[in-house]
Amino acid sequence: MVDKRFLIDLNIDVRQAMKKLDDSHRKVLFVMKDNSELAGVLTDGDIRRWILSGHDLGESVDKVCNKDFISVSKDYDLVEVKKIMLEYRIQALPILGKNGNLLELLFWDTIFGDEYNIEEKESIAIPVVIMAGGEGTRLDPFTRILPKPLIPIGDHSILEVIIDKFREYSVEKFFISVHHKAKLIKAYFDELSPSYEIQYLDENKPLGTIGALSQLKNKVDSSIILTNCDTIILSNYGDMLKFHNKKNYDITLVGSMINHKVPYGLCEIEENGKLVNLIEKPEYSYLVSTGMYLIRKTALSLIPENTFFNITDLMEKVREKNGSVGVYPISEKSWLDTGEWKEYNKTVERLTS
Predict the structure, then answer these.
(1) Residue 72 bridge partners (DSSP)
(2) Which of 35, 37, 61, 74 is the most buried (most CB within 10 A)?
(3) Which residues does 335 contact at the CB level (< 8 Å), separation at least 6?
């Protein structure tokens, strides 16, 4: 029997599909017609391309899904199935009957066990900069004693959790901007004695969100990944870098698609107060900045030295130079925020349960 958690009707809108895909640990959904016929396959990559094309999230997944999918018949050969899955890195392969009806799903881990890993994490070989100089006032009173980057998630500090995610992609060099309780952060990592390289960007005064990056001008020879110390992104950093390079953006902002449902009827009125329309509990989607960016080396040269400077200022300067700023969309649950208590507790529960 096919597990219905991975099935979705072709008439469901993209917004609903995003939520179901976010909840699926398989990160793939199978789009069904009339509850039995397989119409297409939907992944986060399909949705990302749809968002980047500027299309409406209220459209049906029938317009978004991949209809040119690979499948096998019920008398499949296991050797051939393994070959197909390895060649195309297919996480789940559908078994179809003669009329295109879905009979079963073959999942990667069922076929290969621990023999192969579906997610190849290529070395991205660029430096990562973590902005850790803020006071963390939203996590008061803990941050009166500890700097925000050292607040624990399980057995590790937030900063270590962020670094460990990048270490999975063979990142060897990290720059950490420090200001508030800088000595505590340095002492912690001195005692930790990590195998990777850490260099500190000291802020003697608050320099905005990226003012400290002016210190990188003679220290890096490639693009960098910039992230906040309260942001954990559960996405493929290798794909982000490929996207950044392929599009030739000066800055790529990593944006999370956030859905908000208004729990009331929304009134649309004319100037005289006459009701034009009543929209019952509408739902809206917004692409918001996660605080992670990929920045080309040439853009770093535009940051003035020892000056209060925000990422928005750099974006403006890049555009003045006829450069370009892009967005790499990720799902809502791919962004974990630890910057305030409610979200911090959610992150702890998710990463330690």
Answers:
(1) 95
(2) 61
(3) 231, 232, 233, 234, 256, 290
Say what the pLDDT of residue 115 is.
75
| Cα–Cα dist 23/12, whole Å | 16
| Residues 6+ away with beta carbon under 8 Å from 82 | 111, 112
Q: Which residues pair with 105 in a beta bridge?
A: 94
Q: Residue 250 pLDDT more than 80?
A: yes
User: In the chain, what is the greatest distance between 2 CA atoms, to the nearest angstrom?
Assistant: 72
What is the distance between the alpha carbons of residues 157 and 153, in angstroms, rounded to a whole number?
6
**Residue 93 contacts residue 140 (beta carbons within 8 Å):** no
Q: Which residues of 165-199 are buried (b: 16+ CB within 10 A; e: fewer)?
A: bbbebebebbbbbbbbbbeebeebbeeeeeeeebe
Q: Summarize pLDDT for 285-333 with one digit per residue, the tens.
A: 889 999 999 999 999 999 999 999 999 999 999 999 999 999 999 999 9
pTM: 0.86
**Does domain 128-352 sit in CATH 3.90.550.10?**
yes
d(CA 51, CA 57): 8
Contact 41, 31 (CB under 8 A): yes
- What ranges do the domains of the chain cover? 4-112, 128-352
User: What is the architecture, at CATH level 2, of domain 4-112?
Assistant: Roll (3.10)
Pinpoint the alpha helices (H) of 89-146: 108-112, 142-145
Tokens 């003045």 — which residue?
320
